[in-house]
């Protein structure tokens, strides 16, 4: 485990995308300009947004510490959603189209984003008693139709942003609810564990978003751990792609195998850990290892994954024991301690957590 140090309570917003840069880079090298042009444009936009986020953070300093949840009657803790339309321009936030409580509009992307924000808010509130992603009722803002053929979705530290996809490889990014849950969970991490977006802590940052994105999808569909597909971004690829999703928590490395995209590079165990300087030290690649550990835990415990398995992960993320540079071993140890604290030392849950990390080659002691 990492040496103890003072935990920063100041959330550091980062720019996080659902489609990893290594995948877009692969597409950008394709000889077919119909495929490569949108990928190059998306990479350029992502680089611009990433730089803008860094400049904003430096200029204004880290955001204030996570606010304390106000003493509000649970019945009054409702979401405050605003969906805007960028009209395929590279502008934020765009024109407001739908506000909290208003009726559905004709634009399906707006309605899906509105519903996805609501599904995310509902899981965190009803299951974990968390009032929005910051724990204090933060309004949930999103922008759809961002950019021209923009093939990604991102959390920029303040809002969710969705592209329409290129129509060749990617569909509209509001389609999978787990994509919405994934990106908003970066906000939960931002306001809790504040995991640095590099190396193993960055892979954990990505994995936590995959975990809760999957749980939001399962919760909204009423699926048990056994019934769920454990795919992240299922339905995002067009029919021309040989692949089921961006990632598979059940079987990392099998989500796609395509002539244009290449093969899913995610490892399932530490034996195949990828050492790379790309993608912030492989944050979208090595996240497959903690992803698979959680899948093993959820299936082993059975029932609804958002209950015992999800509770242990949530307790770990928000319990204050994680450092910004937490690695896999430290996170594994923290989940073991969280399981013991909630369910008892030697309980089925405690032993299942130890087992799931052992199965992916991460030691908890």
Explain this structure:
The structure is a single chain. It is built from ten helices and ten strands. Helix 4 crosses helix 5 (199-221). Strands 1-5-6-4-2-3 form a six-stranded mixed β-sheet, with helices on one face. A two-stranded antiparallel sheet has the order 7-8. A two-stranded antiparallel ribbon has the order 9-10. Strand 9 and strand 10 (262-263) form a beta hairpin. Mean pLDDT is 90; it is low at 1-9 and 55-68. The relative contact order is 0.12. It is 41% helix and 8% strand. The protein is of the alpha+beta class. The chain has helices at residues 21-28, 33-60, 108-128, 177-190, 199-221, 279-282, 288-301, 308-318, 328-343, 348-359; strands spanning 16-17, 81-85, 95-99, 140-144, 153-155, 160-162, 231-232, 247-248, 257-258, 262-263. The protein has two domains: 16-69 and 76-190, Elastase, domain 1 (Roll), CATH 3.10.170; 199-359, Neutral Protease, domain 2, CATH 1.10.390.10.
